[in-house]
Amino acid sequence: MSNSMLVVTAHVGDFVWRCGGAMALHAQRGVPVHLICLSYGENGESNAAWQGAAPVERDAVKQLRRAEAEAAAEILGVASLDFYDLGDYPLPESPESVQRISQTMRATRPAVVLTHPEHDPSNLDHCRTYEMVLRARMQAMAPGHGADHVVPPQVLCFEPHQSELCGFKPNLLLEITAVWEQKWQAMQAMPTQRNLWTYYERVALQRGAQAGRRAKSVGTLYGEAYQSIFPAVVPAFVE
Amino acid sequence: MSNSMLVVTAHVGDFVWRCGGAMALHAQRGVPVHLICLSYGENGESNAAWQGAAPVERDAVKQLRRAEAEAAAEILGVASLDFYDLGDYPLPESPESVQRISQTMRATRPAVVLTHPEHDPSNLDHCRTYEMVLRARMQAMAPGHGADHVVPPQVLCFEPHQSELCGFKPNLLLEITAVWEQKWQAMQAMPTQRNLWTYYERVALQRGAQAGRRAKSVGTLYGEAYQSIFPAVVPAFVE
Amino acid sequence: MSNSMLVVTAHVGDFVWRCGGAMALHAQRGVPVHLICLSYGENGESNAAWQGAAPVERDAVKQLRRAEAEAAAEILGVASLDFYDLGDYPLPESPESVQRISQTMRATRPAVVLTHPEHDPSNLDHCRTYEMVLRARMQAMAPGHGADHVVPPQVLCFEPHQSELCGFKPNLLLEITAVWEQKWQAMQAMPTQRNLWTYYERVALQRGAQAGRRAKSVGTLYGEAYQSIFPAVVPAFVE
Amino acid sequence: MSNSMLVVTAHVGDFVWRCGGAMALHAQRGVPVHLICLSYGENGESNAAWQGAAPVERDAVKQLRRAEAEAAAEILGVASLDFYDLGDYPLPESPESVQRISQTMRATRPAVVLTHPEHDPSNLDHCRTYEMVLRARMQAMAPGHGADHVVPPQVLCFEPHQSELCGFKPNLLLEITAVWEQKWQAMQAMPTQRNLWTYYERVALQRGAQAGRRAKSVGTLYGEAYQSIFPAVVPAFVE
Amino acid sequence: MSNSMLVVTAHVGDFVWRCGGAMALHAQRGVPVHLICLSYGENGESNAAWQGAAPVERDAVKQLRRAEAEAAAEILGVASLDFYDLGDYPLPESPESVQRISQTMRATRPAVVLTHPEHDPSNLDHCRTYEMVLRARMQAMAPGHGADHVVPPQVLCFEPHQSELCGFKPNLLLEITAVWEQKWQAMQAMPTQRNLWTYYERVALQRGAQAGRRAKSVGTLYGEAYQSIFPAVVPAFVE
Amino acid sequence: MSNSMLVVTAHVGDFVWRCGGAMALHAQRGVPVHLICLSYGENGESNAAWQGAAPVERDAVKQLRRAEAEAAAEILGVASLDFYDLGDYPLPESPESVQRISQTMRATRPAVVLTHPEHDPSNLDHCRTYEMVLRARMQAMAPGHGADHVVPPQVLCFEPHQSELCGFKPNLLLEITAVWEQKWQAMQAMPTQRNLWTYYERVALQRGAQAGRRAKSVGTLYGEAYQSIFPAVVPAFVE
């Protein structure tokens, strides 16, 4: 049975802050977690790398971010990691990349794909990624593109930087306390975006508090929020 | 552990068409299913009863609908059934009923409450029921109303008659094929609304087809659609 | 066949500014137009009446507004006019008024009801009127409230003072050029709200321009905008 | 006077399931119905054609779907039929196709254009078609692209596969009982998508039931649902 | 000139977590800040008070919460404080309270009113407060309720506990770093809700980070988020 | 400190009707106002130019519109004016133009950018402009595209032709009475779109009336409406 997870992000840092907990948690449970980063985020999400005293080349920034992403992915237990190097701010349209994502879907047969939400006026790279994922999903389902077509996977959008600005409406809270330490280490493997560490630690604590509220749990909890795009087929509401 | 289900409907017929499958399925799995009908639907949802040649009294209509509801509930395996007899078309506001629902919540400690969606311009009784359920949920959670306060249950809205008119956005599809026969019998236990039988048989087939599409199932499937109001806390996305 | 129109407004002035054209147009075509004003708008929409040098009694304001409304209604060709005198700013809840509106619906059997839109944060009297109309519509449809139950009428919301603030999304434009003169006279029959004359003349010109745009008409046009609540059953899209 | 209808779909099957009734009804009334299919749906909507024992070529699938579409269009009384053969799953962007649609608009001068709704996360080909139609509509209105510019037609979106998922809000119900037999035959002229026959028969019955409810009709009714994009200019609300 | 601020909350704690910074900041600038608490939150928002070993009376809880609110209000520099003691979970409807709020508006003539947002399925007391404030605003504007009628104030909604669940869309960020120490002390003056301290400290840090992002500020910032209900009349966009 | 304003429009006429008041007002206050027109609107928004007796060349229309725009811009006090000449109806995608806008942002460092709103089914050129502006804003913020990266400016959408059709929700009203005469002259400097003069005069009067209503002003007021995309960081709510 298909039980893998595919994560598609616009920039290398996104998977750590937004769904690093889900990745570690599923990897720990034996679910293969595949990761695609459409760009290195070299232009718009590597500010620290550009702010040193000495001039820096774009390729050096890309190498740096790639190394950080590989380190973080390893901490989270990622099964495969693919960099498309499309450039960012803005991320260009790329039918070839849509096809390439669809081929990864055919090869890995994910039950669920994690990606950015549909809207974000402050970051259209995220919107474009969402659209590319949905388009790739169609391509992966189509018999005319190969007999290995897939059952259409669920798509879950992870949390953007400012949820309300993006119309993000989470309907799933994932409790990630058991893997928080891993997520925190993966965040620290990204010193180029050091400025985001405490921000996303607080995000995890807020989502954990919300999850605990519904569950009357005790102790400090960490969480991540997700919004499902398609109706989920469930066997029951109460166990 | 709390594992019961509470269903609150505006009129007696609603539970059969809208969530009869969920009720039968959970009852079959050993989940206690409790049912509250705020009215008999005697004025606005018992048309056949009023259309005979001979004049009919409202009390007779209420008795008829009560008997039908009891028969249908038994077929579905309901654990308890409560009629509030508030009157319908329109259903009046009733703080006392809110409190009474909250007491049932305290007594039965449901993990999930099924009720009408928030909006329905063609049937404000449904909207009022939704609001009463949310208000009762608050009252049931409050320590100041008794030490037996509950962990706040999830609220799932079942399908209205015209989904788009009501802004209904289902995010959960429940496959009910295994209990379809029971639901169909429960529907037939309501001859006063015989005109709805084939309509809701088709609704079940459409929702089943949609569920099957996501699951690549074969054979005829039956389904029901639901919209969750609160984020669900989940342990994982992929088993 | 049923072919009457029912208009229900919160305050006496509303019918003139918002749907005076539709009223005159239909009256002219022989459609009986019935009007219900839930209040005289004496507190919040009669400012000129309160601003004179001499003190004024509330009853005097009500009489004044009633006389204005009767004059305007006559100009527009209204078939019947009913004042509920519920008070305004705020308009109170009134189950009795809901029932009374429903009885008028049973008596007049309107094909369409014109009223305020659902939302208006600056004027909750309008929202309450909308809700009362929908509730009365249910009551009028219910066989249990009398054998003279009606086929449910379409509900059309007329334009609020600030459309975007109210989430008003018109899907119907009525060209009222042929009756503009009548509407203008009816507006002038309401000197207490003289401050609104040019505002609503401009509204009519804007809606007329929008209607003309779609129809490639020439000359000055006047219009009114409406939003339908229920799907309309149409025989064809093109004549 | 302009009185034609233009239908633009992403894939060949769409016009049958979604607006075959409107097409037959208007053709029967003497309205010329023009049809544009942007792709043959060969990759993603011809599953049965790919699932045989023997391998199949894409061109053969396209020929098959073309023949089916021609047969269905003839049954529905289509006046002209144009295949753009853009490919599908995904349908590519095509400014040339936008221009070509605009030229058909100039040539046929439709009063109304039927196409897909704006949103559909499960099928971005539908969204792209919607956008291409709106862009072509602009191009057709512009004097700078030729003196034969058109009065902007109304755009009506037909029903997607899962209405709520697409945010589809129908405001028009077309009763198609008189042409149901034709629509049913046209559906059967598409054996490649045999799996959709009963699904869309039920859609027609549900929309017919909803139309009948508003009209108090008797007997089995069939219907189709539409959402208008632009305000409609109407001469009256009640005849 | 009118330059006061009015805050209306459902429960005593709300003003501290949600707008304590705005209150302290404006008080510091010499703006009179008036506060109305519709209930003591004794039933649903005083959990710690009910969880001791010994039984406790509702009146004792109310006294405790009142004292906490008075202490917090003093820290924040509140000019006047009014408790309506309506009860909570649920907060009842109260036309008398609407009138009383409107009288405070007439007396204090606020330029802005801070209150809860319109929607919150987990806490209908907040929704009811919003509605009461808007209704009171109407009553305060109406000449028929007294010659001291007010210019309608702006209404700003402060942040609910789970912003996305409530459809909260902030369009204003208030930087409160200068008064954070006061807000933090006011929070600590509410030990009954000690469980919320760190949650709302993190909310303030997140909103501060978002404010700083737009302003390229440095250092730790604290903020609060607000959503305006009415269009703001502004003299310019750039100073 | 940055205090300039950048205006980006799809067609040359747009800046006059939609934000001419804001431009004149800020220019008068010493704020440099920079203007980019992506097209001359030669195809779709120059109807009068194409309707003469003699045939006309597209280049002549473009020259005409350019001259009109230059005259209007001078009246409004524009500091710089850039024509991209991309063509219109439809306006094509253009990554190069996105980059060029971003370079202007880097050079002029606007505190605020005025442009079209996100949605407009009747004019996709407006939507594309909005998207290009947001994409250019990202590019201008990115250190990897140059060390002169900017603090992200606020984006304010000005009013479309039919606000409700576009989902336009203004939250800012700018009172432009002091510069109305200039705006009116700028409108008259565009005789090719003479048909819009009175329409937009009425828009200005309606927005002025709405602004006055909130401010209890007297006399005839003129206004413009805007919707902010990002939360504004404000120092206080009451002065």
Account of the protein in words:
Six copies of one chain form a homohexamer. Chain A is of the alpha/beta class and 239 residues long. The longest helix of chain A has 19 residues, at 58-76. The first copy, chain A, has helices at 14-28, 47-50, 58-76, 95-108, 124-141, 180-188, 197-215, and strands at 4-9, 33-37, 80-83, 110-115, 154-158, 172-175, 223-228, 232-234. Chain A is built from seven helices and eight strands. Chain A is 41% helix and 16% strand. The first copy, chain A, has one domain: LmbE-like (Rossmann fold, 3-Layer(aba) Sandwich), CATH 3.40.50. The A-B interface holds A 3-5, 22, 25-26, 29, 31, 111-112, 151-152, 154, 156, 170-175, 210-211, 213-216, 225-226, 228, 230-239 and B 3-5, 22, 25-26, 29, 31, 111-112, 151-152, 154, 156, 170-175, 210-211, 213-216, 225-226, 228, 230-239.
Radius of gyration of CA atoms of chain A, rounded to a whole number: 17 Å
Question: Which structural category do the helix and sheet elements of chain A fall into?
Answer: alpha/beta
Sheet with the most strands of chain A? 7 strands, mixed
Uncertain spans of chain A, ≥5 residues at pLDDT below 50?
A: none
Largest interface: A-B, 39 and 39 residues
Number of strands of chain A: 8
C-alpha end-to-end distance of chain A: 23 Å
Looking at this structure, what is the CATH superfamily of chain A?
Answer: LmbE-like
Average pLDDT rating of chain A? 95
How many independent structural domains of chain A? 1
CATH fold-level name of chain A: Rossmann fold
Oligomer: homohexamer
Indicate the CATH architecture of chain A: 3-Layer(aba) Sandwich
Shape of chain A: globular
Helix percent of chain A reads: 40-55%
> How many alpha or pi helices of chain A?
7
In what range is the share of β-strand residues of chain A? Answer: 15-25%
CATH structural class of chain A: Alpha Beta
GO molecular function (chains A, B, C, D, E, F): hydrolase activity, acting on carbon-nitrogen (but not peptide) bonds, in linear amides
Protein name (chains A, B, C, D, E, F): PIG-L domain-containing protein
Organism (chains A, B, C, D, E, F): Bordetella genomosp. 4
InterPro entries (chains A, B, C, D, E, F): GlcNAc_PI_deacetylase-related (IPR003737), LmbE-like_dom_sf (IPR024078)
